[in-house]
Design goal:
Elements lengths: L7 E4 L6 H7 L8 E10 L8 E8 L7 E10 L3 E5 L8 E9 L4 E10 L2 E2 L2 H10 L5 H4 L12 H11 L5 H15 L1 E2 L11 H7 L3 E2 L1 H14 L4 E8 L17 E3 L4 E9 L3 E5 L1 H10 L7 H9 L3 E2 L3 E5 L2 E3 L10 E3 L4 E4 L2 E2 L5 H4 L1 E8 L1
Helix pairs in contact: 4-7, 5-7, 6-7, 8-9
Length: about 375
């Protein structure tokens, strides 16, 4: 762990080796986008003048379709570190401040490069027909968690939707069709939603936001024997499909403080992890006032069965896990938002002004 540090620069984090991976990865588009993102924290605790604080903030993971090119940190924290010491290997920035009346600030600048990601349908279909065994690393994502049960009504619905279907990808499509048809975006849900798939199925109320809808999709897939996981991240800028899915001003600048967004991946042996985003189907319907049968909604549905537009960056796919260093409250549900504890009390990460934090993205041209 680093000692008290006012300025640290880590150049080209994870850049080495990224381009060769892209060259090998099918479905990764040749054109890239670059975003300069600033993450500012000025931690507050009600009206208290003197208090300690501990911060855990998710950082982008490096994958062939997204690379953290540069990271610069300024902070008055007593100590900080970047670690992956958790069961999901999630990259986390941790900082701590002792009890005092001094400001508790952290300013992080990152440069992120992304490329649209799409796995060809023919590749998925051919791999699925081979019915290869599921490797151990992927089989981990068949296990239930507190928020992603695979028994009870989840199991019953998965069995109903996939009865008599042996092909894995056909099972995925049956579940994807059902989830995108019955769920809807509920704007009253706070943040991205809790993502408790079991409660959603028990209640029969299928309104929610991205974590809720992605978690339901993931739970049903796992119950049907398909490895699946949520991917927590944040939108970075303009979508080429719809303003409902990301926008920016004429200079490519966007305040992304509340733009956290959860997507999903499922695994087909021989094809690997496949990107998907059932939740954005419902967002398009709500924002553009379109019905499910609308051709534009169906077009996005076809795309998001097996692709992501990368005006977004993923952090991790961790659920119901323990951070490092161990916080007072654990396990946490997910790490798509910054997490702060003042002694044993978590701050409300759905309240960026009270917390406080602000994130701004600028697309580099």
């Amino acid at each position: 762990m680093q000692r008290r540090t006012f300025l640290k620069t880590l150049a080209a984090v994870g850049a080495a080796g990224a381009l060769p991976l892209w060259a090998q990865e099918s479905g990764i588009t040749p054109g890239s986008r670059r975003f300069l993102v600033t993450w500012d924290f000025d931690i507050r605790y009600e009206d208290a003048k003197s208090f300690p604080a501990r911060l855990w903030n998710p950082l982008p993971e490096n994958r062939p379709w997204q690379v953290l090119r540069r990271l610069k940190l300024e902070t008055d924290a007593k100590a900080w570190e970047i670690n992956r010491k958790n069961p999901y290997d999630a990259r986390v920035l941790y900082a701590e401040w002792p009890k005092s009346g001094r400001p508790k600030r952290l300013h992080l600048v990152t440069e992120i490069e992304t490329r649209d990601r799409s796995v060809p349908l023919k590749k998925i279909e051919a791999a699925s027909r081979r019915n290869l065994p599921i490797p151990e690393a992927a089989a981990f994502y068949l296990q239930p968690t507190f928020h992603i049960p695979t028994d009870g009504k989840i199991k019953a619905k998965a069995d109903e939707l996939t009865r008599g279907v042996k092909d894995r990808f056909e099972r995925v499509k049956r579940i994807y069709d059902w989830v995108t048809q019955v769920t809807f975006r509920d704007p009253k849900v706070i943040g991205c939603g809790v993502g408790h798939a079991g409660k959603m199925m028990e209640s029969g109320y299928f309104g929610g936001k991205c974590t809720d809808i992605s978690s339901l999709f993931v739970a049903l897939l796992r119950a049907a024997g398909i490895p699946a996981r949520e991917v927590f991240g944040i939108r970075l800028g303009r979508s080429h499909f719809s303003k409902a899915l990301g926008k920016a001003d004429a200079n490519g600048v966007a305040d992304i403080t509340t733009w956290q967004h959860c997507r999903a991946e499922y695994y087909i042996p021989g094809a690997g992890w496949i990107p998907s985003d059932p939740a954005d189907i419902t967002k398009l319907e709500l924002v553009e006032h379109r019905k499910y049968e609308d051709p534009r909604v169906q077009e996005l549905k076809r795309r998001y069965l097996h692709s992501w537009e990368m005006n977004w960056v993923g952090f991790n796919h961790a659920r119901d896990f323990v951070l490092f260093p161990k916080p007072e409250q654990y396990p946490i549900n997910m790490l798509g938002y910054p997490y702060v504890e003042v002694e044993d009390e978590p701050l409300d990460y759905y309240d960026p002004k009270g917390f406080s934090y602000r994130f701004v993205s600028r697309e580099l041209r």
